[in-house]
Amino acid sequence: MQRQGSIGGSAAIRIRVTGGVLLVAHLAFVAWLTLRPLDVPWVTPPNVRPFAGIRADLLLGWQVAARRIAEGLALLAPLGVLLPAAHGRLHSSPLGSLVRTTAAAALVSLGILLLQTGVPGRVPDVDSLLLNTVGVALAHLAVVPAARVRLRRRSEREDRTAVHQEETAQGRTPTFPRVGIAP
Predict the structure, then answer these.
(1) 83 with 108: CB under 8 angstroms?
(2) Helix (H, G, I), strand (E, B) or coil at 49
(3) Residue 3 has pLDDT above 80, yes or no
(4) 89 pairs with which residues across the strands?
(5) Which one in 97, 115, 116, 178 has a CA-CA gap of 20 to 30 Å to 166?
(6) VanZ-like domain location, by residue (predicted)?
(7) Are 87 and 12 in contact (CB under 8 A)?
(8) Which tops the pLDDT comparison, 169 or 108?
(9) Which helix (H) or strand (E) holds 3?
(10) Phi and psi of 125, rounded to 5°?
């Protein structure tokens, strides 16, 4: 039985499986990138004040700040597309989808932040949590609504084609002229 509002047929399975495989691969890459120990001569204290790290980066120069902010936005940004693809719903509230995806990404980022507390050389930074979450929301807004519209149109077109093929294979349904009521 198919969920209401889901993509139908084999296209749904392909999108869900591809989204799920890419999601797992991306999360494995992020875990490898963020949770491997680093050999550093010293470790800075953790940043628990929002935007303090971004302000410090801006004091170092706009090029350094732009690179670090872009890295923070890009790290989990693919989740903005991969989470809805793995879920596979065409008819979903845009706001609800954005909230679900952003909340899931915030929880993933928080999990990474908490796991980093036990990794040598890694320093938890609340700004990375904020940037990762904003990056996911921006990626979701940039791709998912347009992709859903495109897939809905394609699905409707395929449905119309299937109905037309069914009608031509079986012949048209006979129609009867209306008969008035006798006096």
Answers:
(1) no
(2) coil
(3) no
(4) 6
(5) 178
(6) 24-142
(7) no
(8) 108
(9) none
(10) -140, 120
